[in-house]
Input
Amino acid sequence: MIPEKSIKLCDVAAILEAEVHYSYSRQLAIEIRTARASDLMSEILSDDQVPDMLLTRLCNAQVVRTASVFGIKAVIVVRGSHLSQKIIDLAVEENIVIMTTPGSLFTSCGKLYAHGVRGVLEIPQVQSENP
Output
């Protein structure tokens, strides 16, 4: 079951007062329903469900590569962390929207939750009809 409420990625940027470092304008119209917050990419890799968006304090290539492999639409780096040009270039190459926000991980997640974004692990997986 997917939550009925979603918000556009451009609204996420506005809510979090985020700076968008890379996106095509059409990507900012993507609907966001779920998010995952973690500084451990191993946690993301071990999950069965893929969030629409990842929030983290990490600002390294592994974050962008993890997002790319799993089809995560956007990465938001919290606490105003500086992104190197190398990370931005990798996001461009992998076509991953990447933003930074001055807010903490906790506050950023709370703001998104208040606007209807839910944790990917809160949503039951859709069971396959094929056994």
Summary: Helices lie at 9-15, 41-46, 61-70, 85-94, 105-114.
